[in-house]
Specification:
The chain is mostly helical.
């Protein structure tokens, strides 16, 4: 018997799929909230007109696609607030260096994806919307990292 004839080569991919599935379900459970809670997943589902995802057991692939849309939107919004240009085009024309881009990326993560007691950029700590969005963005980055690692074959 070899690993191929025992089908051991397929077992790791099934485990990783279930890991991602469970992570997405846990994230949905933690961040679902209500439509009136700004920053909750239900709020974003209504903005994206994906009301079927508010059901008790939404489709995994549709949910994952919506979560990635939310992640991309939150990251774009964070970049918009981080750069000091009136448009992304003007920022691109400034021809920023790699070091500057990495510095801005670290600033985005520190300010918008890291829940902290001081809040990003000195905002009040009693802002629950800001803290919830920071937690959501942080968790969505974990999901994206896992999905990208699985698709790249990096399961070590």
């Amino acid at each position: 018997m070899t690993p191929w004839t025992c089908r051991e080569v397929f077992q790791i991919s099934i485990r990783l799929f279930h890991l991602c599935l469970n992570l997405v379900w846990a994230l949905l459970h933690v961040h679902r909230g209500t439509a009136s809670e700004v920053g909750s997943l239900t709020y974003f589902f209504l903005l994206l007109e994906k009301t079927r995802l508010s059901a008790p057991h939404p489709d995994y692939h549709t949910l994952l696609a919506a979560l990635m849309q939310i992640l991309h939107g939150l990251i774009l919004d964070a970049w918009w607030h981080t750069i000091s240009f009136s448009s992304i085009g003007k920022f691109a024309q400034s021809n920023p260096s790699l070091e500057h881009l990495l510095e801005l990326g670290a600033k985005v993560v520190d300010s918008f994806a890291t829940p902290c007691t001081d809040g990003p950029e000195g905002q009040a700590t009693n802002d629950p919307i800001n803290q919830n969005v920071c937690l959501l963005l942080q968790d969505l980055i974990y999901v994206a990292a896992l999905v990208w690692a699985i698709s790249d074959g990096d399961f070590g």
